[in-house]
Design brief:
Elements lengths: L1 E8 L2 E8 L10 E4 L8 H11 L4 E5 L23 H9 L3 H17 L8 E6 L3 H10 L4 E7 L23 E9 L5 H13 L4 E10 L12 H18 L1
Length: 246
């Protein structure tokens, strides 16, 4: 069960989708699901619905609304195609921490005003580049975000990156879960260790798990790196996290 909505934001209008279980009765705990760099597409609609079916109202925004409405990647294409990658990289470059912050405020306003969402704390999920978004939103709204999760997150803790979310994790009050691919060239072991150290030093309740044999993008069914076993584990861990926090 899903419907499209439009969310007023400082930088324009965010096209987004709200997913609920087929047997939804009344408002449900809210979960924000950020897509990976490939943005809105069928495998993420399926993923959002699977989360919703566990008893949540899931808000999935188009992170590239400033540049395009709806899907950005043509059917049958992917980030790996040389005629698609430059566009996605360009659009992703517009998502500065400041831009993300403005979008977070708009998404929370939507949650507060749309009938599907219950009052109270929320969960946030990110994939690939948006693993950092989930952390940053948890840090900016510590009293609102009860759980933040990132899967096959990219470039979370580069040593020379002043915009790394590791610099703001001290504000997080909710729980954090990371499911990392143990063969992820976009998040090498030293970055995982650096982020874990920052979270531990800040006293954040967090869990880091390596998905053995998995590669970057293991949850995306349209990627050659898709790993059915790792994807199933990701849904299991996510279900547990949301059940325990929301």
């Amino acid at each position: 069960m899903s419907r499209a909505i439009e969310i007023p934001a400082v930088d324009g209008t965010i096209d987004a989708h709200v997913f609920t279980p087929g047997n939804a009765d009344g408002p449900l705990p809210a979960v924000v699901l950020f897509t990976d760099i490939g943005a809105l597409r069928p495998c993420y609609h399926e993923k959002a619905q699977q989360v919703a079916d566990n008893g949540y109202a899931v808000l999935m925004p188009n992170v590239y609304y400033r540049d395009a409405n709806g899907p950005v990647v043509p059917e049958g294409k992917s980030f790996r195609d040389p005629d698609v990658r430059p566009t996605l990289v360009e659009y992703a470059g517009h998502l500065t921490p400041e831009a993300q912050s403005r979008d977070f405020a708009a998404l929370l306003d939507a949650i507060d005003n749309e009938a599907e969402f219950a009052d109270g704390k929320i969960g946030v999920i990110g994939y690939c580049m948006t693993g950092a978004f989930a952390l940053r939103m948890a840090a900016e709204y510590p009293g609102r975000v009860a759980a933040a999760a990132g899967f096959h997150s990219a470039r979370l803790a580069e040593a020379d990156d002043p915009n790394s979310p590791m610099h703001v994790v001290g504000n997080i009050e909710g729980r954090v879960y990371f499911g990392h691919a143990d063969k992820d060239e976009l998040l090498p072991p030293e970055q995982i260790a650096r982020m874990d150290e920052a979270l531990a030093a800040a006293g954040v309740h967090f869990t880091t798990e390596l998905y053995k044999g998995a590669a970057h993008g293991f949850t995306a069914k349209d990627a050659p790196s898709y790993d059915a076993a790792a994807d199933a584990l990701h849904h299991k861990r996510l279900s547990m996290l949301l059940e325990e926090t929301l």
